[in-house]
Design a protein that fits this description.
mainly alpha
Length: about 100
Amino acid sequence: MVHIELVIAKLVTMGLGFLIAYKAYRGYRVYGSEPMLYVAIGFLFISIGAIVEGLLFDVLGVSIFVAGTIQTSIVALGMLFVLYSLYGKMPASPGE
């Protein structure tokens, strides 16, 4: 049984994540800001994580436990990329 409201909410979440990833990637390309590249990669993983549980469970028939574990791992990996963008090695500023 498909819950259309949940599917729509997941697709909106994924779309917003992809939009953030795209904007961050553009920031990387335009300004050469390496941290923005990691933000883009992070949000790409987070966005994919938004729908992977449902796909694994409903389409491929994977157990909800395994699907949830995979989804959580993908989102956590995305968050690690975003965290690295905040705390990773940054080039020295001209004033330092």
